[in-house]
Amino acid sequence: MTRFGFLVARTLRDETALQRLSVPQSELLAELAGKRIALIGNARALAQDQLGTEIDEADLVIRINRAPMPAATSHGTRTDWLALAVRLGGQDRQHLAPRRILWLSPKRKRLDWQIATSPGFYLHPQTDYRALKAQLGAPPTTGVMMIDLIARSDMARLELYGFDFFASLSLSGSRTAEQVPHDFSGESAWVNRLAMADRRISRH
Fold first, then answer.
1. Average pLDDT value for the chain
2. Where does the sequence pass through the membrane (predicted)?
3. The 3-state secondary structure of 157-180, one letter per residue
């Protein structure tokens, strides 16, 4: 697909055309098989912990959106995959240096050509987003979409860091829970139920 073709597909919301830029979900899930995965949320409370070394020891480290990393001691240093639902400038992407970018937002108009043509790019299907939204009764966060996706794989472990569902607010900004369109208590309960049913998943 050319850049012009991408812009046309994005404008027309041609999901079939846009999906041609993405690796298949089956390929993504296969890469997770047998791995211990560290998924890093953006809760401010994580900055008070000393979990950076533990995070970096995971087989795969996945960060979310702007992926603030105030200190290596609390957040580690690696970013293998970056899951996005916001625009992120080229300089920020270069600093994080992920080897794969995943676009989880249903808002395709925010997706840019550089991300869509990056190595190993993955575009999360709209059907998956809508199914999870129906379960939660509210638009899901990027973090919960990633948890839902990873839980479908044959991964060995999923360790969640920096997920307190806005109890300590976010390192990415100053908004309160009331200012964002997510049901954080509902998401917390959903993750707790999932972790109870799937012992591979744990929250730190």
1. 94
2. none
3. EEEEECCCCCCCCECCCCCCHHHC
Q: Which long-range contacts (CB under 8 A, 24 or more apart) does 69-72 make?
A: 70/171, 71/47
Q: Please tell me the distance from the alpha carbon of residue 167 to that of residue 107, in angstroms, as a whole number.
A: 26
| Domain boundary assignment for the chain | 22-203
Predicted confidence (pLDDT) per residue in 14-45, tens digit: 999 999 999 999 999 999 999 999 999 999 99
pLDDT in tens, 117-144: 999 999 999 999 999 999 999 999 999 9
pLDDT tens string 113-124 = 999 999 999 999
Lookup: tokens for 114: 């550089």
**Cα dist from 192 to 68, 130, 156, whole Å:** 25, 21, 18
> What kind and span of H or E run contains 190?
helix 184-197
Q: CA 53, 46, 200 angle in degrees (round to 5)?
A: 70
Structure tokens at 57: 């020891």
Contact between 60 and 83 under an 8 Å Cβ cutoff? The reply is no
pTM for this predicted structure: 0.94
> H or E segment at 102?
strand 100-103
* Helices (runs of H) and strands (runs of E) counted in the chain: 10, 7
In Å, what is the CA distance from 44 to each residue of 58, 59, 75, 171, 178? 21, 24, 11, 5, 17
